[in-house]
Amino acid sequence: MKLADRMSLMGTETAFEVLAMAKGLEAQGKKIMHFEIGEPDFDTPQNIKDAACKALKDNQTHYTPACGIADLRQAIAEHISKDRRVEVKPEEVVVLPGAKPAIYGAITTLVNPGEEVIIPNPSFPIYESVVNFVGAKPVLLPLDEEKDFRFDISDLEKMVTKKTKMICINSPHNPCGSILTKKDIQGICEIVKRHNLWLVSDEVYSKLIYNDEHASPLSEPGMKERTIMIDGFSKTYAMTGWRLGYAIAPKELVDMMTRIGINIWSCPVSFVQKAAIEALRGPQDFVEKSRKEYIRRMEYIHGALNGIDGVSCRKPRGAFYAFPNVKSFGMPAKDVMTHLLNDAGVACLHGSAFGKYGEGYLRFSYATSLENLQKGMPLVKESLEKLKK
Ligand SMILES: Cc1ncc(COP(=O)(O)O)c(C=O)c1O
Q1: pLDDT single digits (tens) 89-123
Q2: How much distance in Å is there from the Cα of 170 to the middle of ligand 1?
Q3: 111 to each of 65, 127, 258, 263, 371, how far by Cα in Å?
Q4: Each residue of 18-34: pLDDT tens digit?
Q5: Residues lining ligand 1, CB < 6 A?
Q6: Alpha carbon nearest to ligand 1 atom 13, residue
Q7: CATH superfamily of 5-43+286-388
């Protein structure tokens, strides 16, 4: 088939491919433990589901404004104003079907072919994919295990050229489980202002942070006018399948991202938006309960991985991913991943699925029960120790 040339520029997300491989093995009768996919295993809280059901019963089943219903934009503006300590107006909020469309929207509305976007690497693969898709150049800033999977601000500044248009950051971080400190964020903001750049700050894991305070560039002076802050409902409220996220951005960008929506999805799903209002305004005990549960699982998996000969793992500080170093096995991380899938029936991801600086690492999602982790980790140990023999 002769596809349009631009399609060769678009990447993918390996998590979905590995999930398909694992499901294929399951279809052949093999038992697989799933640590590959990054979605909360909890059910969406009942009050949120009830709000969606009520909206359906009330026939909230029609098109809504493309940028989201006024009540939800108001609820998001209030939530972010309080949470990130900055005044956000409803017209600075655009609601989209997930955080992913917000990433796509931010990059496509701002970045021209030939311009450069600095992206820490390894990272969520969609940033690099969309930057390539618009004909721009991703400039990869290595995340250093020795620096707790962060980077020196001076190294970031060295990467800025005349062509740099944007920096993308993500804290807490997928796949490394690391965070950017307030000092890191302040350093990044200084560079963004000094060089007149745009900052995309993907904060979908902002509520899943363990012992630190979440630092957002939106809270820094002079940053609201040059930041697209992305958050959503998938991770915080276990709503991955509902497809709802949002961006906080200057009004002109909100209007352009809305135009993308008008061209592709028309509007976010009507009754899901009603449920999202309940998510933000209803009780928040689910968020704290799930965060505490992720800490329990993190403590277990961190200990279990470090107990395997040849594996070392930094302690995750947020999100729900462990990113162990498996370089001592002397083979590509993808081969280690495939070995674990076939030999132990354990599905995880290879770090290189998140970019070239992820080589030598695996990503285990611990968005699964402690019981599953306790069953799976001994299998990982046994299987990896075979590779050492
Ligand atoms: C860093 C990051 N950003 C965005 C997303 C996408 O979130 P959503 O389900 O809201 O599209 C994910 C999902 O894995 C993610 O890890």
Answers
A1: 999 999 999 999 999 999 999 999 999 999 999 99
A2: 10
A3: 26, 12, 17, 19, 45
A4: 888 898 999 999 999 99
A5: 38, 98-100, 124, 170, 174, 202, 204, 232, 234, 240, 245
A6: 38
A7: Aspartate Aminotransferase, domain 1 (3.90.1150.10)
